[in-house]
Design brief:
With 225 residues, the protein is α+β, with helices and mostly antiparallel strands. It is 39% helix and 22% strand. The chain folds into two domains: 80 residues, Orthogonal Bundle (GTP Cyclohydrolase I, Chain A, domain 1); 132 residues, 2-Layer Sandwich (GTP Cyclohydrolase I, domain 2). The strands form two sheets. A five-stranded mixed beta sheet has the order 5-2-3-6-7, sandwiched between helices. It starts with 27 loop residues before the first helix and ends in an 8-residue tail after the last helix. Bound molecules: zinc ion.
Length: 225
């Protein structure tokens, strides 16, 4: 304990930093160290908030929070990218391939509150196609970080564009931001869904293809699309 009665905090884990939605791959022992340091800091936070450490509902909260943030909610910051197995586009398909209803579970960088929603990814293959389950893993890898929805949308598209080299690519996210909902920000916050989209190749250039995207996605074409 230090002189102010708060637990003495461990030194910050080394090395380096990255943006909240960046990636900084760390070995298991570093993550363990990070979790321990975080538990001590959360103990101090509960103390500052004058929460009785003997309250049976809060006694283990610092440990639970530390584990949740390192191992779950910010996991994508510390893990390597998912392996993307590509297959040859043998039939030279030039139609739109779409995966919709991909779950988005993220936290906002600004308030550390949940961002929950769905992602639709559609692409026209070039030389390769990708297993659909890989799309979910890619969305998850980028979502498990402190995020800003606009940047999350771009990160997913950039990654796919680099790996898959499709002839057209569209990524659309529709999410609820719980920082608005729990804080009761003015407006119809429970209904407020934020939609972000980004387009590459044929989907950036061709309005008809973008209409096809929204038709397959079961979405109405918004004004801006
Ligand atoms: Zn927020």
């Amino acid at each position: 304990m230090s002189s102010n009665g708060l637990p003495k905090l461990l030194a910050e884990p080394s090395p380096g930093v990255a943006d909240a939605n960046g990636n900084i791959q760390l070995p298991p022992e570093e993550l363990q160290q990070m979790e321990q340091a975080l538990e001590q800091h959360f103990t101090a936070i509960l103390r500052i908030l004058r929460i009785d450490p003997n309250d049976p509902n809060s006694a283990d909260t610092p440990r639970r929070l530390a584990r949740m943030w390192v191992r779950e909610l910010l996991r994508g910051r510390y893990e390597p990218p998912p392996r993307c197995t590509l297959f040859p586009n043998r039939r030279r398909s030039n139609a739109l391939v779409m995966s919709r209803g991909i779950e988005v579970r993220s936290v906002c960088s600004h308030h550390w509150q949940p961002i929950i929603g769905q992602c639709v990814i559609g692409y026209v293959p070039g030389e390769h196609i990708i297993g659909l389950s890989k799309l979910n893993r890619i969305v998850e890898w980028f979502s498990r970080r402190g995020q800003v929805q606009e940047e999350l949308t771009e990160q997913i598209a950039e990654f796919l564009q680099g790996k898959l080299r499709p002839r057209a690519l569209g990524v659309v996210l529709a999410c609820r931001h719980y920082c608005m909902i729990v804080r009761g920000v003015e407006g119809d916050e429970e209904q407020a869904v934020m939609v972000t989209s980004t387009w590459r190749g044929g989907l950036a250039e061709n309005t008809r293809l973008r209409e096809e995207f929204f038709r397959l996605a079961g979405m109405e074409l918004p004004e801006y699309a």
